[in-house]
Write a structure and sequence with these properties.
Helix content is 0%, strand content 48%. The protein has no helices and 29 strands. The strands form seven sheets. It has a five-stranded mixed beta sheet, with no helix packed on it. It has a four-stranded antiparallel beta sheet with strand order 1-29-28-27, with no helix packed on it.
């Protein structure tokens, strides 16, 4: 029997996203919003983990930053151990330094709708990406006052944009439109004109479009060990594993993706998928069914796919993330304003 989780409660602020620091094993950043992110302000929490009386760490808010609008995502810098970016409901992106006081050190405001994801490249370490309900994905560097590139990736909300951990110029997106797309950033191009594509709002051409779901795709993640393997999850309650090795990078407008596996069990929409940084076959998922689950996507014959269910949350679980330093330690966060850290 696993011990109960370490729990941190932040009353009044529903969590949207958590990220472990790539530099320090004892730091977590937590993006949250008042009133479940529907209206009102946000808060960026900076959490420390310290040894406690149990094998699991004690969690403590070291400091927090207030924002005027709700925060939906956060990403640590890959070049500066004390810096991170946040995605906000007012369309802005802010860069913070945890060694400094109340205000962000930079802010950008180009998206015309809510920014729902930010991701810092672990290969091009000076670059991060944002995705928005406006259908756009933008690439940024902290030193520049404007975005480097804009991809008009989808006609509708882009829930996530993620750099490949294997190829520096490859980026994946997922959207309300039910697709997962892979873009080659070295060869920007536009889709030929069509009924939904016009001169004033040209769509960026993807290398590959995966028709992943009849409903919204809310989350994706690249496998850390197997290039061009992606997990997706969304409103259809299933998690799908895609093998995209057949694509030819540089060749545009391919459609497909081989579905390797489907994982069934969540009772409501899957809000987050996260591959283990330590094991190629292990995947964590978070869902509106108030659980965080851990799966073996390639079990030996006779073994189940489902390895673990974490169910102490009392509201939607919207974020989860593996410790980068300690194998088997997982964090989850949700609309119950609780951050849980537990061992799988």
């Amino acid at each position: 029997m696993n011990p109960p989780p370490s729990v941190l409660h932040t009353p009044g602020f529903a969590h949207y996203s958590l990220k472990w620091s790539p530099f320090h094993s004892n730091r977590i950043a937590l993006a949250s919003s008042a009133n479940f992110g529907l209206v009102g302000n946000g808060r960026l929490h900076f959490i420390s983990l310290t040894p406690g009386p149990t094998p699991l760490p004690l969690l403590k808010v070291e400091k927090f930053y207030e924002t005027q609008d709700g925060l939906y995502d956060v990403a640590w810098s890959e070049i500066h151990e004390n810096q991170l970016v946040t995605a906000s409901g007012d369309g802005s992106i802010r860069l913070w330094d945890v060694m400094l006081k109340e205000l962000p050190i930079r802010a950008w405001h180009e998206h015309t709708r809510e920014v729902f994801s930010v991701d810092w490249s672990n290969l091009k370490k000076d670059t991060f990406a944002s995705s928005s309900w406006d259908g756009a994905v933008k690439l940024w560097t902290p030193e520049r006052p404007r975005s480097l590139t804009t991809l008009q990736a989808h006609h509708s909300c882009v829930y996530q944009a993620l750099f490949s951990p294997h190829q520096p110029d490859t980026l994946a997106t997922c959207s309300t439109d039910g697709t997962v797309k892979i873009f080659d950033l070295r060869s920007p191009a536009y889709v030929p004109s069509g009924p939904n594509n016009n001169f004033t709002n040209p769509m960026s051409a993807a290398v590959l479009t995966i028709p992943a779901s009849p409903g919204e795709v809310l989350t994706i993640d690249w496998n850390k060990y197997r290039p061009l393997t992606i997990a997706s999850g969304g409103v259809d309650k299933t998690v799908k594993i895609w093998d995209c090795r057949m694509i030819k990078l540089g060749e545009l407008n391919q459609v497909g993706g081989a579905r390797e596996t489907e994982l069934f069990g969540h009772e409501y929409a899957v809000r987050k998928v996260q591959w283990s940084p330590h094991r190629a076959e292990v995947l964590a998922t978070a869902s509106y069914d108030m659980t965080c689950r851990v799966w073996n996507t390639a079990p030996t014959p006779g073994q189940p796919q489902l390895m673990y269910i974490h169910d102490p949350h009392t509201e939607f679980v919207v974020g989860c993330g593996w410790s980068l330093y300690e194998e088997g330690i997982l964090a989850s966060c949700g609309w119950d304003s609780r951050l849980n850290v537990f061992r799988v």
